[in-house]
Amino acid sequence: MCGIVGYVGGQECAPILLDGLRRLEYRGYDSAGLAVHSRGKIDVLRAVGKLRNLEGKLREVPLAGTVGIGHTRWATHGRPSEVNAHPHQAGDVVVVHNGIIENHTALRKQLQASGCEIKSDTDTELVAHLVSRRVAGGLPLEESVRATLSELEGAYAIAVLSVKEPNRIIVAKKASPLVLGLGEGEMFCASDIPALLPYTRDMVFMEDGEMAVIEADKVTLSTVEGQPVEREAKRIDWSPMMAEKAGYKHFMLKEIFEQPRAIEDTLRGRLDREGGDIYGTEFELDVAEIKRVILLACGTSHHAAMAGRYYLEGLARIPTVVELASEFRGRDAVVLPGDLVIAVSQSGETLDTLIAAREAKEKGAKVLSIANVLGSAIPRMSDAVFYTHAGPEIGVASTKCFTTQLANLLMFSIWLGRRRDVLSAEKSAALVEGLARIPQQMAEALKGTRQLCANLARRYVEARDVLFLGRGLSFPIALEGALKLKEISYVHAEGYAAGEMKHGPIALIDSKVPVLVLLPKDEHYERSLSNLEEAKARDAQVIGIATEGDEEAREVSHNLVEIPASLPELTPFLTVIPLQLYSYYVADFKGTDVDQPRNLAKTVTVE
Ligand code: AGP
Prior knowledge:
This protein is an alpha/beta fold. The chain contains 17 helices and 26 strands. It is globular, with a radius of gyration of 25 Å. The mean pLDDT is 93. The site of 2-deoxy-2-amino glucitol-6-phosphate (AGP) has 15 residues, from α8.
């Protein structure tokens, strides 16, 4: 979604703001702008499209000053245009905003009725007018913002400047992320950590319902009601390099190759190899009380959650349902005593997942979240958090966060299975040992399949439809393969439970359709092989993803991609790799914007 950066200090701020916005590009945007205090006025510059357009304008009209705010906009109210781009100015006041003001229609009417001239279609400009009126009436900026917030319904992270108070930025947060960065004689704010990493590692995470006054030598936190808030800064140990491409052509490719490291970090301190168990002290759940698990998630995280159901049912023998968060919320779903909700979200900010988990919590469920972004909204509302340690994921298409989510779901299932006394010590120990080997095996799979996947992508780059088939744990992986291909290459792709083919989708198959079939050595192997044969008999180009040395699969497939042998429960970590690589190379050959595919955003904080 949109990105915010703010700076107060002694340096020229325009380059710092631009640099910060560039580090937030992964959030997806369609226009950008800056506002800088400059000798008794605030200069605003905005441009549609990529940041280079804004940079071009800046070269013609440089903005000089040491206090300013910047924004990248992902349109929600009003089409992408310069007039709708942020910052929005009204009188002496300038505002940038992420989120959605839900009562914008009523506010617009009210402002128009009192003679206010509104230039844009945005909800944000209304906020600027509301603050500006109070500032014009003589109220200090902080109080003007505070009073305005009480009129707003919905979600926001805002940063506000006033000509009358040139040495400060006022920020406020409700349901959209905002972090404050603490420097020496300079202070920052941003909607996400990577924007600030080159400047400071000391960050304060704002909570919903809080405001802050940012000045060069201090930040002052308070609640919207005016109560002072004390919060310690957290030291963020991500290096700026971790948030950059490190020599890869795209962030997505880098992140695919980071998976062994990401899994290793996620497993670190978790595997009790001696006891054949999982350390899980922070879960603090009364296991005897858990009667059912409800997994809530969207998109790729939903696919991880689907795999999680196989783990939870198979290893912990606990009844489990998986729900798309967007379908769970608002339908008054039944939540029973003893329900444990597991909310799975890379960003920890996905609005549908957040609201669905909140609804379940209000009905009495305990909430455990699996998230990658420290201090994000979903972990904050959860009873327990099980972080993935994938590091920042910049590519919009999720890869390393997916596999680290799988790791956490598997570890949690082993932990629960042991405590429910339904998972044998032998099986648990074998899984723990197998998990310990996974980073190395993923590295082998990456090395062993990269070139072959690139070749296959080249061969089938013109295919208009692609099918991905899998059974059991391979079914969510097939769905994930299809989603990856769709979102970055814009090729139509479907993931199907292989056994469902004969009930309809088989009609789609002809000689132009590549069919990727997941054939790991598990209890579904023979039947999946038959499905591959069925597709082949209808002239499809069949690509098998099978265990190394599988001669039977080699014989029947037109092309075979081999992955290292592992326990059946661990195959998703390995079979997903060629699917990610295949999708990546198809997109790269097509020349699409791999890291920021059209119409998509990394963090989806709207309905
Ligand atoms: C992943 O490739 C997608 N871009 C998208 O489906 C994503 O997984 C979804 O929006 C959920 O995001 P979250 O994990 O941050 O909640």
